Structure formats: structure tokens, C-alpha cells
Amino acid sequence: GVKALMALLIRGPQDAVLAPVPQYPLYSATTTMLNGTLAPYYLDEAAAWGITRQELVSGLQRAKEAGATARALVVINPGNPTGQSLPKAVVESILRFCAANSLVLFADEVYQENVYGDAPAFCSFKKAFCELRAQGETGDADAAAAAAAVQLVSFHS
Description:
Aspartate Aminotransferase, domain 2; 20% strand
């Protein structure tokens, strides 16, 4: 599944994949095996292993500095190995970020049953996307534009 889909996007070193650090090395290894460019973005340990917009922008910059165009963003939610589930507001902002930057979003949510402790309630990217699309259908032009531009590949949700 993952390898076949990534092979559709990665044509060579000119194509980059933004992937989180830390992570189980599936995406970084597959990107390397397909001769693509890995553009890491770093999870914020101080913010419960969260994802910040600034770090995603830095990931785009890393791709550009490597001479590559970012084609996809990988988000593992809940994270592996961190176990942190992303708040709904962050999930929504990532959808909008991908829409604005023409990134295919690989939402790896295979660990959604592994949310423990004080982690936020799990919110799938697929559910958030459907809600974004519904907002667009009720007249929210920004939501409509974002929903129309999102390319979501959802694993296990």
C-alpha cells in the first residue's frame, strides 16, 4: 500500500516527502528506496510531540534547499513511537496547509486505538476533511477552496 502510493509520487531526487522525526522508518526508508528526497520536519517534544506550522514550513524549506519539490506530507496520528494524538484544530490546520502547498497528505492512522492517558481524543484526518467540505458547502469560501484542493490518502480511518 504505502510503497505503491509513494512510487506514484516520487519520480526521483527532485521529489521530496516531508516526514516526521521521530518516526518508525517506513516513510523515510521508502523515500530513500525510491530515490526521492526526504525532507524531515521535527515534532515538538515540549508541546507533547505536536506539529507546528512553522516546522512544516521549515520542512518545505529543507526540500527546496535540497533542490527538490515537496510532493507529500506524512502525518502519523497518533504518533509512533510517541503515542501522541493530534488535537482537532491541528488536524484541520494541516489539511489547510497541504491544500495551500499542493501536498498530498498521507494520514497514517493505524495506531488510532493506541491513545493513552491525557492525550487529546483521536480525530481522523478523514473526518476533519469531511467536516471541512461540509463547511464549504454551507458557504464558507475558504473551507470550500481548501477542501477542493486537499489530496488525502488515509490509512486505517
